[in-house]
Amino acid sequence: MADIARMAGVSISTVSRALAGNPLIPKTLRDQIVEIAQTHGYVVNQSARSLRLRKTDTIGVIIPLAHEAGQLISDPFFLEMFGRLADEITRRDYSVLLNKVVVTEPGWLDRIIQSHRADGLVLIGQSTQHEALNVVADTYRPMVVWGAQLPGQRYCAVGSDNVQGGRLAVAHLVATGRKRIAFLGAVHAPEAAQRFEGYKQGLAEAGLPFDPSLVVPAPYMMEEAQEAIAAFLATGASFDAAFAFSDVIALAAISALNAAGKSVPGDVGVVGFDDIVLARYGNPPLTTIRQDLAFGARAMVDLLFRRMAGEDAPGTLSPVELVVRGSSV
């Protein structure tokens, strides 16, 4: 930078401002300095700049997967949510740093924060890290989490009404005449637990008994979910409908049912959750509970930037809706 300042006949601070696009530097002079810099192969050292300004112009997006280490970032839900977050973040002239976290030893989130590689953090999901998030939230404000709202929660969370989604799914299946409704998916992560609770509430509201034998702890990955559901079918369990934790599991269920010689929706009606893009292209197209991911991404980024500015911005819950397609009627 000192060399460029000497060649342009200006001060180092003027070069710095010009390369940052500062409008206080006349455009003609800015253009001259930029041309000299380009000619001599000079680029701003962003790491040094970030260290000096204590600002990275980067937002970290974290996917914690302690509960399902084998789940891939290429999961359709993660891809869609990350894409929407990236659009919202880059619209504000910030970069995005993606971090998948599988090993969650004590202090894992503190280490990410202390690396100072991002000005704020968005987490897609809580995994099993609710308490870790609470501890960090006591001292670190620029963090927003996609997930369930839980008792005693001290971190800012944006999510969907998972319980209502489960109730809507079961009510729809009951309205189509189904009486033996299975639940497909593990139930230990917060959002899964809430959808499972909605499923049980829906059964109770319809006057149907809850049968633990119809709960299938299917993994989140499609191939593994299909294998788990195929094993469940091989037991000869009697059921005429299924509500899946996610669209991925629901699509895996349809594949397993077809392979077992059962028709969807003739023998078994299937409802998923999320309304990912693949849902409408299934065979048959998938009935699902839609959560508004566009709203979720927009709300998370807006809340994050408000918190980065020092505001005590609370989380929010978005409604869900039933989208009826061919897998249930």
Structure described in brief:
With 329 residues, the chain is α/β, with parallel strands linked by helices. The chain is 42% helix and 17% strand. The strands form two sheets. Strands 2-1-3-4-5-11 form a six-stranded parallel beta sheet, covered by helices on one side. A six-stranded mixed beta sheet has the order 7-6-8-9-10-12, sandwiched between helices.
Explain what this protein looks like in three dimensions:
The chain is 42% helix and 17% strand. The protein has twelve helices and twelve strands. Strand 3, helix 7 (130-137) and strand 4 form a beta-alpha-beta unit. The longest helix is centred in the middle third of the chain and has 16 residues, at 190-205. The radius of gyration is 25 Å and the shape is elongated. The mean pLDDT is 92.
- The tally of helices reads 12
Main sheet overview: 6 strands, parallel
Q: What is the rounded Rg?
A: 25 Å
**How far do the termini sit from each other?**
68 Å
Write the layout of secondary structure elements.
Layout: H1 2-8, H2 12-19, H3 27-39, H4 46-53, E1 58-64, H5 76-90, E2 95-101, H6 108-114, E3 120-124, H7 130-137, E4 143-146, E5 156-160, H8 162-175, E6 181-184, H9 190-205, E7 215-216, H10 222-234, E8 241-244, H11 247-259, E9 269-274, E10 287-291, H12 293-308, E11 316-318, E12 320-323
Sum up the structure in keywords.
single chain, 329 residues, alpha/beta, 17% strand, elongated
